[in-house]
Protein 1
Amino acid sequence: MSAETAHTTRPDMIVCENVDKWFGDFQALKGVTATIAEQEVVVVLGPSGSGKSTWIRCINRLEAHEKGTIVVDGVELTNDLRNIEKIRSEVGMVFQQFNLFPHITVLDNVTLAPKWVRKMPKAEAENKAKELLEMVGIPEQASKYPGQLSGGQQQRVAIARALAMEPRIMLFDEPTSALDPEMIKEVLDVMRDLALGGMTMMVVTHEMGFAREVADRIFFLESGEIVEEGTPEHFFTNPTEDRTKLFLSQIL
Amino acid sequence: MNEPATIKVESRPKEPSRTPREWIRKNLFSNTPNTILTFIFGAISIYAIRELLGFILSGERRWGAVATNMRLLMAQGYPANQFVRVWFTLGCLMALSGLSLATWRASGRLSLGKISTWTMNLGGGLALFAILAPISWASRLGWIIAAALFLLVGLSMWFGLRDSEKRFSGSVPTVWFTYGFLGVLVLSLWTVPYGHYAFVDGELIAETGRTVAMSTKLPFTVMWLILVGSYLIGTQVRQWIPIGRTKAVLIGLWFLSPFVLNWIVLRDPDFDYAHIASTDIPLALMFAIGGGLVLYLLSKPDLGEIGRIVAIIFLIFAIFNWVAAFFGWYPMLQKVRISFVLLALAALVAPNFAADKKTRLRFVASWIGLIAVSHWLITAINSPSTLKLQGPTYLGGFSLTLFVAVLTLLLSFPLGVLLALGRTSTMPIARVLSTAYIESIRGVPLITILFFFSNILPLFLPEGMEIAELAAIVTGYTLFSAAYLAENVRGGLQSVMRGQYEAADAIGLTTSQRTGFIVIPQALRVSIPPLVGQAIGVFKETSLVAIVGAFDLLRIAAYVVPSQTEFLGVKREGLLLISVIYFIVAFSMSKYSQKLEERVGLGER
Amino acid sequence: MIQETPPQNYHHQKPPFYRDAIVVKWLFQLGALALVVFSLWFLASQARDNLAARDISTGFDFLSVDPGINLSEGIDTRPATGGRALWVGMVNTIRLATAGILAATILGLLVGLARLSNNWVVNKLGSVFVETLRNIPLLVQIILYGAILANLGDLSYDSGWDNWVIWSNKGLSIPRVFIADGFYQWAIFMLIGSVAARWAYKSRQRQHDETGRDTYPWIASLGVLGAFAVIGWFIHPIFGWVGGIFGAIGDGISKIPEEVLQAALSIIAVLLAGNWIRNFLRSRRTPGGSAQLTDDDKFRVIFSGVSAGLVIVVVYVVWPGLSSWMINSSSDLFGVLDDKFGNGRSGGPFGADRPEVIKTGMFEKYGPSGLTMSIGFAAVFFGVVFYTAAFIAEIVRGGILAVPKGQIEAANSLGMKRSAALRTVILPQALRVMMPPLGNQYLNLTKNTSLAIAVGFSDLVQVGQTVGNQTGKNLSVFAIWMLFYLACSLTISVVVNFFNVRLRIVER
Ligand SMILES: Nc1ncnc2c1ncn2[C@@H]1O[C@H](COP(=O)(O)OP(=O)(O)OP(=O)(O)O)[C@@H](O)[C@H]1O
Ligand SMILES: [Mg+2]
């Protein structure tokens, strides 16, 4: 499997084995096999429609895969309600479109899940939320509504909301694609801090700078298959596959 | 963004001020066809107004019929010596309204320009009336003077403000304007005599000499004082108590008020205290304590799906109790059956409160509160009324109309939301069932449903189970309006983005939490305007209960009054009057919903 | 936390059923279904017992028994059977609804345009009309109109206006245009005519596209239609043979044995379910050939199979009379068509007449020549028309205001004439917005005619209520009401949908 396994000493966090996923008669994932260790940061690249979103959405079961095995933090993803519950509360996810809840304040957005899923007392949840908002750099916006924030601020709230559940894994699906250029940096900074803090992260992004700098490993997906995987140096300097070269030549 | 309403009003481009001459030219005589239209339709309007006034003021009209039957129209045969209950009810509603107005700051401000326009319009209307009405010249003069007065006030306000910005920016709070207006109405009771009829000792007695004002001017003044006073209190309360808590309490009170006011205040149940002490209180205690213990255990953290399984077993048991009741397998108090259903539902939501001790205890406390209130209400509903009634029901006339409308709306709301959720859910059977229900109900007229429930429903019920006429009607009406409500809510549900569901799933909310915290609040926000429209419809269509025999406003005006010996066949007067009553309520609701629509700004926030 | 656990360990880990998301989902639904079915079954059995206890028989046999009632008006005021009585009620309802829809549309359109007018008087009149009429309950209006009409003067020879419009407390009478004997054959002509007109429209349009000349396709097609109408007026009896065809079809249908239809229905159900399942499975099949049916999918397949089985059970066991009823009623239908289209129906397709007052014995009454509306009819008619027109006016106004201003400006900037812009740009877009709510209003109007019971007009609900009270068959009557109104709703939705689709094509 993976050629360079610098992380074998750490336990596996996400194990995908021969994962297949169909939408009707369209196969979006074809035998995806990968292992991601604790504290590892992987970036998933690939052309549009290659199945990047589908893959990471399978990992917290927003989509159900049809064949193969996905094991997240020792829990296999099946129809078992208990497992789904467990994984949802251990895997945080950040969406391209932020998907903040527009009808409640920023603070409520962040405290909702801790209060109702983790059953945290209100005061504790709010303190934690304020800490997190501080960490993502917007402590003063707590009582505003999401619609009153800029895109970059919204995305940082979304990260805080996901972190409030104290996840062991964070998934990012193109977190900066809906942002204006000047806001991209503030979100990427937060993500970089998170990675340095030792979070296990799986990131779909088109920010090559981020990938090169922060990623431990890069997966290149095309037509639902992992075409190439490797460290950033390997990937950006001497990729082996032609399709990867083509992709890089288009994007760089 | 915070207050879109005010922004909207102020950012409207000011109309370029035109002289009256320019205005008339532009709006009435801009070109030949326009001029012709003006003349034709002006003539038609003048003719119509004259005819209408002629009809209203004609000597053949017997307005005494409605004036003397005011009490019948409002409260039907409610015993006169118990009227203090009616006033108490109205007082509670006034107090709640005043507090709510202050808490929600529901109303905006009226610009001075608008007020002066209204005054001028009123003056103009009066002048038109004075000129067109077929009345004597002497009385015409009086009206003309009144009109001139209003016109003068309005004009001087308008032109007095001409050069100051005040005409548009100067304003008074709408609430105070409304209170002043109501105050004037109440004051008029002290001077203008309206006649009335009364039921005394079971007989209809004409008291044409006396005025309604003699018996109602004091109470109405008190009502006005309560309204204004509670508003003032509300504005103070804002500063001492967190606004969220006040809102929660008020919503709870509003929800409880129809039940408490109707069944306990108005109906005055004759509690059997011996029975209450021997059965009701022990029962309630049993459920409060036993149920509380069970819920405390069920909300233990890490109980996992055992909790859910227990809750499902409870639910099956609770439903089974009703089945058994229908077959008569074993006896059980109705109250106990209802309590078991409540317990099962509470058990279903228990996992949501599985946290620290404090949360769990609070959950148990609200359970005890629920049991206390529901047992109290059920006992009251089951006790006979102490009222000595002449009519078939203690409610009648406008009060019945309002009661049916409010109860129907309250009851059909949860059902409608459930149906809408069913229709939009991913579960095929649930979708098919709700769609079939909604579409078949929407396909048939309300009147057939009402007939079904008042004539045919008794056939479906097991022997010995009776359902009072009014209950049958409200049940039918509720089931009917729920289908329409569901369609309105469905529109809102469909406007909730997919991403919201996914985000809720991703942070680990359960399906019911996702629905309750994320989906429904957003959906309802969008569907508020159509829901208000629906509420207006429900209010208007309560008139149909008259056909199936309930003594609502319409039935009294169209059938009861014309059959009194003094007023045999006097029908049009009463119908016109109730048209005005219906119009005022429906029109103000629709205006309010338009305001709301502007304020919600659809799609924002 | 796991230490290098190979994923193979996780295979074949089926959760217990109460934790399996799919199983729980379907169990919940089946539970709900069972609850509904059980309640229905339970209520039905209660009703049967209660009816038996009260010595009332259920069923529809009252349809062929004399109910002994008189109806206030309709095609038959002394119906010989319950079925006939209900049929009269249905005809009255349809009459009222059709006339109401026509009048409300026209009035609503006018009022809606008035509300858009620049003329202050017209504009305000429109607003007053809308705000007043839609905020007063329809039933109150109907009873009020009834009371006003009932207070008109007595009928005499000089009531009303010169034998054009006559009004009195016996009702209103206006000139009448009626369908005469030859109408149905003439309708065939018009059917052919509309096909021809369509062809003319298309070919003119093509000419316009090719040459760029103004070819007035609308005028051409209307001309063709007019020509057919005129020619058909005189020679329509040549289509008398069509009736014979309908008669033959009716005879053929009545000869179909019941068993054949039963079998056919079952086969259709099975075929439909089978087809659905096949398509479903095919959509799940992949080039890879692996069948990845989820549990959810399996449940779906099973469910559709069971539904087909249910149809068969209904056809053979629950309601064995269904097929014979279908055979009888459709052969009856063709019998009626045979009569309408048959030979020997000469005379023009339409006739027209003015109202008149005649005197029989002591009393004046309306003669048969005018279109006479009883007080009841008129009260309901004006009620539903005014009420619905107020709503339609708002729809019209909203629809036209919904067309973005830029559209009109764009049309103007292209140098289009005002009328051309209205026809090709504004109306199609406005109509598209207006159509669905308009259809809703038509549905409401039809359902609202049921309020006729308040003024004693013999619509279906009023007749049904009388018949039901007379025979105790309220339950059966309710079923008939339900079916009738559902059929009306369906018809109107189909028609509205048809126009909706057409409009979308126009727009494209
Ligand atoms: N719900 C769905 N139903 C059907 N097809 C889908 C669905 N979601 C995704 N697909 C298809 O699956 C394929 C993979 O989609 P996916 O969103 O994973 O691509 P992606 O790599 O994230 O692309 P992008 O960079 O544009 O976001 C696409 O061809 C898409 O059309
Ligand atoms: Mg994507």
Protein 2
Amino acid sequence: MMEAVEHPLLKYLRAAMIPHIWCSGCGNGIILNAFVHALDELQIDLNKLVVVSGIGCIGRAAGYINADSFHTTHGRPIAFATGVKLAKPELEVVVISGDGDLFAIGGNHFIHAARRNIGIKVICANNFNYGMTGGQVGPTTPLEALTTTTPYGNIEHPFNLVHLAAASGATYVARWTTLHVRMLTASIKKLLQRKGFSFIEVVSPCPEIYGRHNKMRTGLEMMEWFREASVIANFSDPAKAEITPEKIVVGEFVDIEKPTYEQLLYEKMAKLMKEESE
Amino acid sequence: MPERLWRTPLDVEKISRPKAEIYILKDQCKGCGFCIHYCPKKVLEESDEINARGVHPPRVVDEKNCVLCSFCTAVCPDFAIFVKEKQCKDGC
Ligand SMILES: Cc1ncc(C[n+]2csc(CCOP(=O)(O)OP(=O)(O)O)c2C)c(N)n1
Ligand code: SF4
Ligand code: SF4
Ligand code: SF4
Ligand SMILES: [Mg+2]
């Protein structure tokens, strides 16, 4: 056993910001790890990568990655990312944000970016609650789950994010848990190589807040839930891929191609300019 | 494995198993235990020592059992552990 050497992936991170602020056993670190693993395996040019996140615990991710990154206002990372992508379509633009940020306050940005097939890539850390603000109920909190704002059990039906993404028109849709690090990394590599709107939901432990209220006090207990409940069902019907205490359906659900918004936009502009000059 | 398929590989003498070098950045560890729990070969265990963050970082039980799968590296949320293949030029 050795010590005092540099982690091989440190070059993809802003060294001065590491160690990160996330709690012990928080899945956000695993998502960051899988993301930089994918960057490394694809040898992605960090000068061509833009990472955008919103507000929340996972929102810190953008700041930890050693690329141009934006930590935007709550719910708006997709709007920022859309602007970057349309101005500079040659850049790879990735949004990493939370279930609350992307699907509560930012829900409309998500469905319309997917519908328009804007070529941005979205990774959602779904930890079933608003971690940063103390654990309020959110749009993915399972029925009957306890949160600080549902002390008697949640009575709101949760979004099924992969179904929502597929129905909105996303060209690549996958869901993994933070225990499926290998599949997750492979999926992130796919996401980075695709042209159209692509989405990965990562079911992620928030032991400090969500787990504490739901009898899973440690990251390990939450990961054990994922291990026991996960069922891999690639290309199964996303409508049936719900998340319950007994079952978490994971896998790839959509992998299709269609013209992107920026491609159609630039083609249209070129055509109109040509007509005008004639 | 069915018995009839089993035989000792002919080149078993010549092939050496890659050896691992496990690096633990002790003070970066937050003690989640993922690496220890999910190592398929039970190479790691919780140590008695308390690091700068007040938790017990992992320690290596037996490096020889490591199969270099790197799962510990991939699952660590805190970039506190990684594995490299030992360069055995001079024998090890
Ligand atoms: C406009 C606005 N409304 C509300 C907030 C408060 N706020 C900060 S983070 C957050 C929710 C974060 O939840 P999520 O996106 O799931 O991220 P997590 O912390 O769980 O990783 C809220 C409501 C804010 N910062 N700005
Ligand atoms: S509160 Fe939850 S999501 Fe936020 S850093 Fe802690 S464990 Fe992670
Ligand atoms: S590389 Fe694999 S076998 Fe070796 S310590 Fe890590 S998890 Fe265990
Ligand atoms: S996975 Fe990382 S943070 Fe967790 S116990 Fe192992 S070395 Fe420490
Ligand atoms: Mg959340």
